[in-house]
């Protein structure tokens, strides 16, 4: 098969790497891609959200499978345009993508279909938000309705902090992701975990689970980010974690989608809080996460290109095998992220960091003097091991080796990924 990966982040680099290793993959392309995808395939100078241009290029290049990476492409209806052009596409259409692109839609969907989730209020103005706060406890989560690149959620400890956040959002007219709709949600207590399903429109199969780290600083301090690291499989949860999630969450979602006439094709990402009463949904994503993809894909066995093609064509096979090895990923970002970012130039294309380690590049290009990165989350260093401890030791050994070779480059990372 000739396979296209849509997007330009470390998730898409990991997808490109794993698809290129598949026996059924003849060639891999990326749009627009990054430095990593360029080193194993061909990048197209086409925006990830330009559905019509992507569809025409897929026809011209005889693409057998298109894999959508970022949520922005799903929300822009790229899946709809590709399917209209007859391209087998792994990734939901815009309608199904509302489970991620609108937190309010997702909340109402869960309420309709009995999916465990936190009690919430929908507000459209600052006055309405202040009134809604009176019906919630001190500790709440404030969520922008639309896509906000992982930065549209603020978790607060008291009502004054909640009012200050809402006043800043509404007063400045800068609600993350745009619009005026906000969700105020009771704050769930427990441990976060992400469980994934792969879907072909009717059937849903387990696609692994992981734990990620959203805060910028060690000890879960600092602002929310797009993700600073992850590990798989999760530790410290019930052995039947996935079976419980399947019964309480995934099956009700599957039945609800079919009842509402929706055919969900791609990955469903269930972001959960494991409470004393079991799993509750914090959010859905309509695609693989970043950095979760970077620690899940090294564990998936078999022909991944054939697997994703079977989902895209409505013929998903009956099981998916995962390695018993664990995988840990550490994100390296420019100082100041997520508040600011600085471009880096001339990063080395090839760095020896150990056979167990891999580097997945974020938004970047191959320049005259090496790799030029636009800043923010520059790369993810991942490593496998016989267990989480071994994988963690391998990953941080790779990070230290990389840091010594980069010298004085202005990169930062969390030191506590996969601890506890």
What can you tell me about this protein's structure?
This protein is an alpha+beta fold and 420 residues long. The chain contains 13 helices and 23 strands. It has helices spanning 10-20, 35-38, 51-60, 71-75, 78-84, 98-101, 103-113, 126-133, 159-172, 241-259, 292-296, 304-312, 388-406; strands at 2-7, 27-32, 42-43, 65-68, 89-90, 120-123, 140-144, 153-156, 182-186, 191-200, 204-212, 215-217, 221-224, 229-232, 265-275, 278-285, 326-334, 344-347, 357-361, 364-367, 370-373, 377-385, 411-412. The protein starts with a strand and ends in an 8-residue tail after the last strand. 49% of the residues are buried.
Task: Reconstruct the topology from this structure.
Blueprint: E1 2-7, H1 10-20, E2 27-32, H2 35-38, E3 42-43, H3 51-60, E4 65-68, H4 71-75, H5 78-84, E5 89-90, H6 98-101, H7 103-113, E6 120-123, H8 126-133, E7 140-144, E8 153-156, H9 159-172, E9 182-186, E10 191-200, E11 204-212, E12 215-217, E13 221-224, E14 229-232, H10 241-259, E15 265-275, E16 278-285, H11 292-296, H12 304-312, E17 326-334, E18 344-347, E19 357-361, E20 364-367, E21 370-373, E22 377-385, H13 388-406, E23 411-412
Parallel strand pairs: 1-2, 1-4, 2-3, 4-5
Antiparallel strand pairs: 6-9, 7-8, 7-9, 10-11, 10-15, 11-14, 12-13, 14-17, 15-16, 17-22, 17-23, 18-21, 19-22, 20-21
Helix pairs in contact: 3-5, 7-10, 8-9
CATH class of the largest domain: Alpha Beta
Please report the number of helical segments: 13
Report strand %.
25-35%
Shape, per Cα inertia axes: globular
- Please give the number of β-strands: 23
Alpha-carbon Rg, integer: 21 Å
CATH topology annotation of the largest domain: D-amino Acid Aminotransferase, Chain A, domain 1
Low-confidence stretches: none
**CA-CA gap between termini:** 42 Å
Structural class: alpha+beta
Mean pLDDT: 94
Give the oligomeric state of the chains in this entry, treating copies of one chain as homo and distinct chains as hetero.
Answer: single chain
* Major β-sheet annotation: 9 strands, antiparallel
CATH homologous superfamily heading of the largest domain = ATP-grasp fold, B domain
Tally of individual domains:
4
CATH architecture classification name of the largest domain: 2-Layer Sandwich
Helix content percent band: 25-40%
